[in-house]
Write a structure and sequence with these properties.
Number of helices: 1
Radius of gyration: 15 Å
Distance between the termini: 44 Å
Strand order of the largest sheet: 1-2-3-4-5
Shape: globular
Mean pLDDT: 78
Strand content: 35-45%
Order of helices and strands: EEEEEH
Largest sheet: 5 strands, antiparallel
Length: about 70
């Protein structure tokens, strides 16, 4: 039998910029209940949630060239 315990916290999602509930099944990975983004928790004096998937330089260039306003 596998026992799974979810942790629910409140936080600001960096993807949708909303204060929302974040659900975590591990101590480091959370999912935004507003937009569904997967986030990684970092603790360095304060708790910060960042997107779990990082864009490559090529993907960043493609996004910037499409809208001209994307900042990384």
């Amino acid at each position: 039998m596998v026992k799974i315990q979810a942790e629910i916290v409140n936080g600001k999602c960096p993807t949708c910029s909303e204060l929302t509930m974040l659900v975590g099944l591990t101590s480091e990975m959370y999912r935004c209940m507003n937009c569904g983004a997967d986030l990684q928790q970092h603790v360095n004096g304060k708790i910060v949630y960042i997107p779990a998937i990082q864009l490559s330089d090529k993907e960043k260039a493609e996004l910037t060239s499409k809208d001209g306003q994307t900042e990384f």
